[in-house]
Design a protein that fits this description.
Blueprint (H helix, E strand, L loop, with lengths): L2 E6 L7 H14 L4 E6 L1 H4 L9 H15 L7 E4 L5 H11 L3 H6 L1 H9 L6 H4 L1 H10 L5 E3 L5 H18 L8 E3 L31 H9 L16 H13 L2 H12 L5 H27 L2 H30 L3
Parallel strand pairs: 1-2, 2-3, 4-5
Helix pairs in contact: 3-13, 4-8, 4-14, 8-9, 10-13, 11-13
The chain binds adenosine-5'-diphosphate (ADP) and tryptophan.
GO cellular component, one term: cytosol
Subcellular location: Cytoplasm
Catalytic activity: tRNA(Trp) + L-tryptophan + ATP = L-tryptophyl-tRNA(Trp) + AMP + diphosphate + H(+)
Length: 327
């Protein structure tokens, strides 16, 4: 069975971008693959050196993961910091990761710009830690959104380089995976770009209907099409992309038709979109609240997940030590 690994940093609640970009693929794969889904708490230290309550954040994300339908009986769900073997692999990979290539990654450059007073070595080596997460289980598929493409290229490069340097065929090259033919980018509704926690434009799975409606009604639009069948400007296209993601084809076609005949009323579209988002998130939100209240269950899930993840990690790291030449 093929092995799948993916992680999400516990820097905020899960939003629709996380769900449609990554989690939906996990849900599909957990039935047919050997899946490891983890909470990347070490990674979050690169941007949040003082997580104000890391244990609570991890719990929250864990409950949200489970509420989405990730099944701990089928998949291994664990917390990154419960599996210290990843750090040893991170060290070995760092020994063959070059400053130039790490400095050139767009996410490093972007983060360095966003936090000029904290350009730490963890930020620089973010891609090696991510590669360690993946290679630790010798994963071949990694469900992630489009924004992770460059990190994935680095992971493949580090896997190949390890094999070449030590003359082995040990690590497989991991591929990004998305459910559809191409990676999904869930847009923000504030005009341009993707939906994200750091972008401050996210609609969260745990948002109540009122909050969702408020966010959707505030979405940026324009004065409306001036002639039939005109091209949609980005903010409007983003609304339609969202409609395509959460609403039925019928609803999408209805509003697309109205747009093309210049009869669209954005208020109606937004109202429908908000309703469709709420019907999608409401059951998840209910489960989040239930699962969060069950501390014993959450404890058991992380404990058992850590045990299973460590079994695989210990095996890989022992092999890596042997390959490098440690006894
Ligand atoms: P954020 O960007 O909100 O900080 P993360 O970086 O923690 O979210 O992303 C976790 C996962 O969700 C990654 O696999 C990422 O590719 C995916 N993801 C996040 N935002 C989006 C989006 N708007 N569209 C598609 N996938 C996304
Ligand atoms: N870098 C990913 C993100 O920002 C999170 C992550 C860390 C990850 N390690 C990973 C994703 C390993 C997939 C596999 O979203």
């Amino acid at each position: 069975m093929e092995t799948v690994v993916s992680g999400i940093r516990p820097t905020g609640n899960l939003h629709l971008g996380n769900y449609f970009g990554a989690i939906r693929s996990f849900l599909d794969m957990q039935h047919s693959h050997n899946c490891y889904f983890f909470i990347a708490d070490w990674h979050s230290l690169t941007t949040h050196p003082h997580p104000d309550n890391i244990v609570r954040n991890v719990r929250t994300i864990l409950a949200e993961y489970l509420a989405c339908g990730i099944d701990p009986e089928k998949a291994t769900i664990y917390v990154q910091s419960d599996v210290p073997e990843a750090l040893e692999l991170y060290l070995y990979l760092n020994m063959n990761a070059y400053l130039g290539e790490l400095e050139r990654t767009t996410s490093f450059k972007e983060k360095a710009r966003q936090q000029p007073d904290n350009v730490n070595a963890g930020l620089l080596t973010y891609p090696t830690l991510m590669a360690a997460d993946i290679l630790l289980h010798k994963a071949v598929k990694v469900p992630v959104g489009k924004d992770q493409e460059q990190n994935m290229e680095m992971a493949r490069k580090f896997a190949r380089r390890f094999n070449t340097i030590y003359g082995v065929d040990f690590f497989p090259e991991p591929a990004s995976f998305s459910l559809g033919a191409t990676a999904v980018k869930v847009p923000g509704l504030d005009g341009s770009g993707k939906m994200g926690k750091s972008e401050g434009n996210a609609i969260y799975l745990a948002d109540d209907p009122k909050a969702i409606s408020k966010k959707v009604m505030k979405a940026v639009t324009d004065a409306g099409p001036q002639e039939p069948n005109s091209i949609k400007p980005e903010p409007v296209e983003n609304l339609f992309s969202m409609l395509r993601i959460v609403s039925s084809e019928e609803v999408y076609n209805h509003f697309d038709g109205l747009y093309n005949s210049c009869a669209i009323r954005y208020g109606d579209l937004k109202k429908q979109l908000a309703e469709d988002i709420v019907s999608f998130t409401a059951p998840i939100r209910e489960r989040i609240l239930e699962i969060q209240a069950d501390e014993d269950y959450l404890d058991r899930v992380v404990r058992e997940g850590a045990e299973r993840a460590r079994e695989s990690a210990v095996r890989t790291v022992a092999e890596v030590r042997r390959i490098i030449g440690f006894r």
